[in-house]
Amino acid sequence: MEKPGTSAFVRLREDERDARRELIVEAAKKLFSQKSFHEIGMRDIAVSLGVSPASIYRYFRSQDDLFVELLFQDMSNIEKVIEESFELDLISLDDVAKTIIDYLLENEATFQIMCHFMIKGEINDKTLKKYNAVQDFFLTLFDSAFEKAGTPVDNRLFFHAFFASIAGVVMSFRNYKRNDPEQAKEHMYNMSSLIAQSFDLSVEKAAREIEDKDALSKKSKKNVKKKS
């Protein structure tokens, strides 16, 4: 039998743990606004809080665990950006591409963390599961934009290919013309427009193929009825 007050004590301990995790996350966010992603380690975060690195590891088992928590918390910001960007009923794939580029460029820490998980070979199962959940949520937010842009039946597969193409542009040319960020962004916009045009052609082709399949199916059904 549970002793009186035990559940309240457990809740208090859990609330305290959550509060400390939040302090660590906020300290990491602040550092990311001041330094490059690769310049920040668990020791730096600990120093900023005035605690030992071991204290950080009590709440986050690894640096990856902390990074994925930062991404997880950033989802509400991403959701707001996407909703504001795609308020109109009619948008183009070019609009979607530019929104992705703008978001990734304006949210350096988020982009760096995403790249970290994209290219890292070994991630523990728990962290990977959480990262995949964040990734799925992020892609799902853009699915609605793709529907507005008139993409074919399998929106998820189509958008995965599209997002990978645009993210590749940002990864490859983020530091192009480093002394002129606006020129670099314009260069990325131009490339994303070419990608959007290519995908638009794919949409039209897919739509024609679906129409042809439907027509062929109806014709086959009519022939079966005639024979019977």
What's the CATH C level of the largest domain? Mainly Alpha
The rounded distance between the terminal residues' Cα atoms is 74 Å
Examine the secondary-structure arrangement and name the CATH architecture of the largest domain. Answer: Orthogonal Bundle
* Biggest pleated sheet: none
CATH topology-level fold name of the largest domain: Tetracycline Repressor, domain 2
Instruction: Give the helix/strand class.
Output: mainly alpha
SSE string, helices as H and strands as E:
HHHHHHHHH
Number of helices: 9
Cα Rg: 24 Å
- Which residue ranges are poorly predicted, with pLDDT under 50 across at least 5 consecutive positions? none
Total beta-strand segments: 0
Kindly give the count of domains: 2
Strand content: under 5%
Rough shape? Answer: globular
Mean pLDDT, to the nearest integer, reads 79
